[in-house]
Structures are given as C-alpha cells and as structure tokens.
Design the sequence.
C-alpha cells in the first residue's frame, strides 16, 4: 500500500497535537515534516509543543521547522482561551530535548516539495501564513505540491471567531486568499463538518482507562477544549477539527465533497475572514477547490478513538 506522504503545517494547539498522534497511529500516511505557524499559540510555543509531542511518541526523526510568527498583514492573535496558556490545555509535557530543524518552515517546505515533485501533500491545520509565504517566495512549488488539505473556514456554518469567520482563516485572511488563488489543488475541511466530529466525555473515559502517559496527554488536552466549547458555543465535545483534515487526505470515503469556486473576504469589516462557495457559479469561474460539506461523523470518531486507544496501550 503506497503511503500518502505529507508535510503538516500547524499551530499546536490541542487538536493539532491530536493530529500528530493520529498521523503516527496511521500506517496509511507518512508525515515527512512539521512546520509551525502562529495561531492557537505563539509560533515559538507551538514549536516547543510539537517537539514535546514527538518526544512523547518517541518519534524524534521528523524535522520540525519554525515558521511565520505573525500574519502577512494583521497583528498577532492567539487562542489561549481555547487551548490554554501552553497551547496544550491541562496537559503538561517535559521541555523537549530535541531541537528544531535549522531551516525556516518556508525553506523546509520548498526543499521537500521540490525534491519529489507531485508526491507530497500539505495538511494545513493552522493559519495559512507559511503556505502563502512559500507560494510567494517559491512559486515553482505551485506545480509540485500534490494537494493541500486545509482545516479552515465555514461555508454554510457560522464562524467560531466571529459570526462569519473561522479562526484559522480569520487569523490571516490575506494568506488564505493567496492560497485559494495560488493554483495549488486544495480541499477545504470547514466547520460545517469538523463541528460534527466530536470526541465525547465517555470516549475520553475509554482512553483514560489505558492509564499511560499518552492516554493521559490525550485526556488532559482534549478535556480543556471540551470544557471551553460546551461553555462558549454549546458544542458538546472536543471538535476534532484538525484530525478530520488529515483524514480527508487518506480516508476520503468519510466525506461528501463538492468541487466549487471557493473564496474568502480579506477586507476589514464584519465579514473579514468569511469563506464562501459560489454554488451557482454566477461569474462562470473555474472551480478552484473541493469543500467537504458532510461527513460520516461517528464513523470517523470511532476510527480516531480506535487508533488513539491503540497507541495509548
Ligand atoms: O477553528 C478551528 C481551528 O483553529 C483548528 O485548527 C484549531 O486548532 C485552531 O487552529
Ligand atoms: Ca490548528
């Protein structure tokens, strides 16, 4: 079975960390590198978190590169309220011994993508600043990236940062605009589907029974965001936003996709960061991306749970 190879561009973050675990628990994929961007937490903290999670998993060969510490134009925003002071909720990991790759994220992405043109995907689960910068500095990657799977946006669903905008896109709508119009084929995995894939309290109890450092990490990190979502948005569970974007790459059977004209409003104002699809293609434009609009939610959560339990043994 040919593995799907990918670079994970991320702002770890609780569901980002769960995505790293899901990738390491899935023999169908090969995570070639992790690149860090400002988002849930500052980029420096996100780098520490990614290295710590890899050490927790005794996986220290995967390069982790520091990326953009702020959006293209807008000021820095983070999501401490959702992911906690460290970005990993109630979980506490030892400071990592391993060091980041000396290259900037943009250089690492360029090197790996151009080394094997057409072979590497990018799974982007934070603001799209690193990807936009790579496209602008090295436009030759446009024909070399196999596909980008983006956790971000909301099509027929309300936002989670403003009534209109989802966090990753809202953080850097200009970067999203660059990526959506770059010519790189992409799949958007928006809140429409990610807010359906909820890890519940009883799911966490099953994982907790494993009683290992990995299960402890999963439970303590997920519980933090579960409490936030139930108090702030009446979402009853830990939304597996980012793991679902990874699943879109190697478990596409779970999702109902539509090929659409997809765009984002980058302008200041009430709809800044709003993503939308032109379902009637009023302007007769060429479709530029796929959007996941429905999901077999519990089937995904069960698959995720099975693999988290397996690695927690
Ligand atoms: O809106 C959800 C997204 O924003 C997820 O990627 C989460 O990790 C945060 O980055
Ligand atoms: Ca994220």
Sequence:
């Amino acid at each position: 079975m040919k593995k799907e190879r990918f670079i994970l561009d991320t702002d770890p973050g609780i569901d980002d960390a769960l995505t790293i675990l899901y990738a390491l628990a899935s023999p169908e994929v090969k995570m070639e590198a992790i690149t860090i961007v400002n988002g849930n937490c500052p980029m420096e903290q996100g780098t520490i978190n990614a290295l710590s999670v890899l050490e927790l998993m005794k996986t220290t060969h995967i390069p982790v590169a520091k990326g953009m510490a702020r959006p293209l134009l807008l000021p820095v925003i983070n999501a401490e309220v959702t992911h906690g002071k460290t970005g990993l909720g109630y979980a506490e990991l030892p400071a990592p011994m391993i060091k980041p790759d000396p290259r900037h994220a943009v250089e690492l992405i360029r090197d790996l993508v151009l080394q094997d043109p057409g072979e590497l995907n990018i799974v982007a689960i934070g603001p799209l600043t690193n990807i936009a910068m790579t496209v602008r500095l090295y436009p030759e990657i446009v024909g070399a990236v196999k596909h980008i799977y983006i956790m971000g946006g909301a099509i027929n669903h309300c936002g989670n940062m403003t009534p209109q905008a989802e966090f990753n896109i809202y953080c850097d709508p200009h970067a999203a605009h660059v990526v959506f119009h770059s010519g790189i084929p992409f799949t958007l995995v928006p809140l429409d589907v990610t807010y359906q894939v909820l890890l519940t309290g009883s799911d966490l109890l099953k994982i907790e029974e494993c009683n290992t450092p990995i299960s402890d990490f999963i439970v303590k990190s997920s519980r933090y965001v579960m409490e936030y979502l139930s108090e702030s948005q009446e979402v009853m569970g830990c939304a597996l936003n980012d793991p679902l974007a990874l699943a879109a790459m190697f478990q596409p059977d779970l999702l109902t996709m539509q090929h659409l004209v997809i765009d984002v409003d980058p302008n200041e104002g009430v709809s800044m960061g709003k993503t939308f699809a032109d379902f009637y293609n009023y302007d007769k434009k060429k479709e530029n991306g796929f959007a996941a609009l429905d999901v077999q939610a519990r089937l995904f959560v069960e698959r995720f749970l099975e693999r988290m339990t397996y690695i927690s043994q």
